[in-house]
Specification:
This protein is of the alpha/beta class and about 325 residues long. It has one domain: Alpha-Beta Barrel (TIM Barrel), CATH 3.20.20. An 8-stranded mixed barrel has the order 3-4-5-6-7-8-11-12, surrounded by 4 helices. The longest helix is centred in the middle third of the chain and has 22 residues.
Length: about 325
């Protein structure tokens, strides 16, 4: 994949220039992109006010925190707004739906982890002050899953372009197929799923995620794939780039130095060893576990914690004051 120019979402020419700068790489902007960037800056600076909801007996805590879900289950309960979080109670405050995967993009699979009931209920609950609605995540391939990856001579520009193109096609697929997202964040899902397939962050794979090599991938090359996705989403879509990962996996893959630093990225972290949803957490902690963030992210970018991966589904806590 060579570097390329293309027409942007608003049919304004966007010139792509490779850079190792990372988060916040500047692109040439047309007037619409400039307006979108200004709106983002104003929202991040606090120009758009957040109104904290009143606490209730069954609510998450403290005020502004909500329970939610992701992927296939659990499913919100109730017949009208406000729909409720199953198992632990309280208002169903948000949901994360899988928009696409790198394997889908390669034609290897067609299934997306989307619960259409949760999409609708999470978005409907935004009628109240506080709940964040539906966000998106993209199951992302690392540089080792790029068919053009050369383990002997890894290319930073190729790795960057691999991430850039995934972001471009993920957003294009979202526009064509949904689901409707009320929370303006698209998370990169960066993990090793542990089911016999791989994502190409720490290893070479074929386009479908089967391991093909054992040569370690430099963290600097991993970071370029991250940067490509980040910059395309930030510059040319209405979404903010975010990342989902476990702290241990992030540190092992990207390191704790500059390649792993996340000063500007919205975070969703996971406590994957916790398989029991009850009791629900309060301010990022439950019995025996607290959220473990990564990349040195400021507290203002701590958005979501997947505190339990249980038989009944994936349970998340959301700080709506950080989620716009």
């Amino acid at each position: 994949m060579g570097l390329r120019s293309r027409q942007g979402k608003f049919n304004i020419p966007i010139a792509l220039a490779f850079s190792s700068a990372g988060e916040g790489l500047e692109h040439e902007e047309g007037p619409v992109q400039m307006a979108v960037r200004l709106l983002k800056t104003l929202m991040v600076a606090g120009a758009v006010a957040f109104v904290a909801p009143a606490a209730s007996a069954l609510a998450d805590s403290p005020a502004g925190f909500y329970y939610g879900a992701d992927s296939f289950k659990p499913t919100a309960t109730g017949s009208s707004v406000p729909y409720k979080e199953p198992t632990v109670g309280g208002t169903f405050g948000g949901y994360a739906a899988e928009v696409w995967t790198f394997a889908d993009q390669a034609g290897c699979s067609t299934s997306r982890a989307v619960n259409t009931t949760d999409v609708g209920d999470a978005n409907a609950n935004t009628q109240q002050s506080g709940p964040t609605g539906t966000a998106l995540f993209y199951f992302m391939g690392g540089p080792g899953s790029d068919p053009q990856y050369n383990a002997s001579h890894p290319s930073a520009s190729e790795a960057y372009n691999w991430g850039y193109n995934q972001a471009y096609y993920a957003y294009k697929y979202y526009v064509a197929h949904g689901p409707t997202a009320y929370q303006p964040i698209m998370f990169m899902d960066i993990e090793n799923p542990g089911n016999g397939t791989f994502q190409g962050w720490d290893e070479e794979t074929d386009k479908c995620g089967s391991r093909t090599g054992t040569t370690p991938i430099p963290s600097s090359i991993d970071r370029q794939t991250f940067n490509g996705f980040y910059n395309e989403i930030f510059a040319n879509t209405p979404f903010y780039p975010g990342v989902y990962a476990r702290q241990d996996y992030w540190n092992a893959t990207f390191g704790t130095g500059s390649n792993g630093s996340l000063p500007s990225t919205k975070e969703w972290t996971s406590q994957s060893h916790n398989v029991i949803a009850i009791p629900g957490p309060s301010r990022w902690c439950t019995i025996g576990a607290c959220a473990q963030w990564f990349g040195g992210a400021p507290s203002s970018n701590e958005i979501e914690w997947q505190w339990a991966i249980a038989l009944s589904g994936d349970y998340d806590q959301i700080d709506s004051s950080n989620a716009f």
